[in-house]
């Protein structure tokens, strides 16, 4: 065939094929080699400048698997692999002389050496590791030692903990489908799939530093990475995500899924303190925790997304009715006006079918101040409601200090409330929720005392008589309208993003019943609440607004603070696809319209699609087989 007879399309196709053939002719590189090769672009430019040393490095990286003990520290790292030193914004002197980092004059950027000069080196046959630096990048005293525990969970699942307690709890089993390969010269490791042997995760590229309220670490799982609330990282920019649940974001789960050589693998962190994930364009992930608790995560080998999901979390799908529309009303009012509103709503919308009704989001608080006449009105209204739908009662984690009610006093006496202190005294920590002065129940406290408190609440609210089908746990990050985070010198890496995430939730330094400042436990607050409620109300269903991540069945998620709009639907599809992989079933049940906002003519189509999409996400078999489903929504 002469060139004249080749069409444009064929010519292009041929070029692709030729390129592929070219590609196939090249010697096969291992993953490590390809990984290092991807950094050569900049290396080759710099090679012109550092003509003597760098070509040696390049050669070395590409052709052999690096032996970590002989790699010198280099600054010749292409930009998409550069881990910022601190926040990267330092002067040259600060950067090089004080922080032991690399400085790029072209963009005045400070970043870590490769490998970083911040690490821990093994002592005593690696039974523990000592710090190479006395300071972290913020010039705070660094923790002198660390330990690494590698715990076998099952053949596809391993738990890894960097800690500084005294136990050495490493367990390894022969039948594992993974290999955890520790470095000899520093605290770090690679994880391989065993058969075929493929590198899945490496941790030796970035710094490891731990000081009193700062911990920094990094990992790399290949350049196809899913997770956080991004689904798939595009790789064209640095993505930063702070996880400290508040009203801005209470659902993002600290978990990722990688894809390598046809298989998927997953990682889920257990970090209760404020944490930031920086995903660099290379998908190298830098993890920064504002409290130096241990860093611990679970790694699973997949190999399908469905396997990753099941290996990380075991749960059942929610009952079908939970995937149907729920109606909840907002605002405040007395029970008479609420009843009126409810009756008018069902009269106006007699053709709208929905699964549950909360009567009123604020009902629980109203009950604190109801007199007998009002209670009767409420009971009658609930009888009507239950003929039409199920009753989901909204339950807040805050306890109003409403004229020192019995349940408030009991919680205080049992030591279940967060406290604060001034130099002389300790007192119950208070905040503001829905305009009321409230205290915060600490669900991580003594379970026996919590059971006693629930019993008191049950009697006080006469819950048995209420005959509820479940609880809707709203604002359970937990919300505090009054608290604004201010600069605190104890937290070195506290920039604006962290400050806004640490506001509007319980104060970071309120003291929990475990005598710990709250911020160290914050991200597990909803977990504690759900677990304690399930313990005490086994039969009930739970909807939660904060993500809930344990391996047991807990609560199903609902959307909060989100208007029903096409833009939000698009956003929710993306986030719920990722969340459904990593946490409690995220059905993202939208409360499709409160009485004031519900306009059937505008919202029915959008709401129906919203429900269908959420239903489909949960029933999507992640092994990618197609499955049929049916869903029933309102008109
Ligand atoms: C960098 O630091 C300087 C001095 O601390 C500050 O004035 C400037 O706003 C910072 N720049 C950025 C982009 O954060
Ligand atoms: C850390 O310090 C030890 C002992 O001084 C040394 O052998 C090791 O090479 C150092 N490692 C790094 C990464 O600086
Ligand atoms: C990165 O890519 C995504 C999708 O590919 C795009 O939406 C986004 O605008 C890009 N960002 C930049 C900074 O180019
Ligand atoms: C990827 O998988 C194929 C098929 O299992 C195998 O032949 C190949 O060597 C693998 N690549 C790497 C880098 O291990
Ligand atoms: C619900 O009420 C709160 C405060 O009472 C208000 O901030 C919020 O905007 C309301 N939400 C809707 C959807 O009306
Ligand atoms: C019911 O319809 C009437 C008349 O259109 C309207 O005034 C009222 O606000 C509606 N009630 C509710 C709760 O939507
Ligand atoms: C609470 O105390 C205030 C002021 O003493 C009083 O006006 C109000 O009626 C009390 N509420 C209840 C529920 O007793
Ligand atoms: C109960 O409260 C209502 C106000 O909502 C009031 O009108 C009524 O008199 C009260 N009843 C009793 C018995 O105190
Ligand atoms: C609260 O008490 C702790 C010790 O119990 C003390 O270190 C701290 O300074 C006190 N806080 C204030 C604001 O005085
Ligand atoms: C709880 O409800 C039951 C059934 O209506 C009623 O008999 C009982 O008196 C109520 N208890 C309290 C403390 O209000
Ligand atoms: C908690 O931190 C705030 C600033 O965020 C400070 O004003 C307050 O005094 C601190 N409280 C205690 C008990 O240390
Ligand atoms: C906080 O630091 C992160 C990471 O360095 C950065 O992405 C973010 O823009 C910073 N936020 C502010 C408000 O400085």
Automatic annotation (TrEMBL):
Pfam families linked: Glyco_hydro_31_2nd (PF01055)
Composition bias, kind Basic and acidic residues: at what positions?
1-16
Top-level taxon of origin = Eukaryota
The answer to whether keyword Hydrolase applies is yes
Keyword annotations from UniProtKB, A to Z: Glycosidase, Hydrolase, Membrane, Transmembrane, Transmembrane helix
Q: Per the database record, which ranges form the Glycoside hydrolase family 31 TIM barrel domain?
A: 317-611
InterPro entries named among the record's database cross-references = Glyco_hydro_31_TIM
The GO molecular function terms of this record are:
alpha-glucosidase activity
According to its UniProt entry, the protein's GO biological process terms are: N-glycan processing
Give TM segment ranges: 40-63
Q: Enumerate the residue ranges of region (Disordered).
A: 1-24
Q: Tell me its family.
A: Belongs to the glycosyl hydrolase 31 family.
Q: Provide the protein name.
A: Glycoside hydrolase family 31 TIM barrel domain-containing protein
**Source organism:** Popillia japonica (Japanese beetle)
